[in-house]
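Page 42, continued from yesterday. The earlier attempt failed because a stray header line got pasted into the input along with the sequence. Redoing it now with the clean sequence only.
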Amino acid sequence: MTVELLWWDGCPSHPDALDQLNRILREEGVRTDVELVEVTSDEQAQRERFFGSPTIRIDGEDIVPPGNGEPCSLTCRVYRTRAGKISPIPDPEDVREAVRRAA
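This time it went through. Structure tokens are written below.
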């Protein structure tokens, strides 16, 4: 399993997303390193299909696919939790579900 966390330095939430991701990987018994990918330009954002920071991909797939028309750019990403709240990081259950699917 390949796990990546793509991030942009202008967004303060990527450390929280990394902590959450590592915790869930441990809880699910998945032993893999998280590859940190810093995105530094809009051109790289386009190449990486980076819809904002933080973005988590497992085996190349975004764990929370963006909606149609979402731009690839250096920006902070916004997620909606399962309870309907806005969050700067993915809902932990979305992360857990993606890890379980890939395991």
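Notes: Residues 3-102 form one domain.
Reminder to self: strip header lines before submitting.
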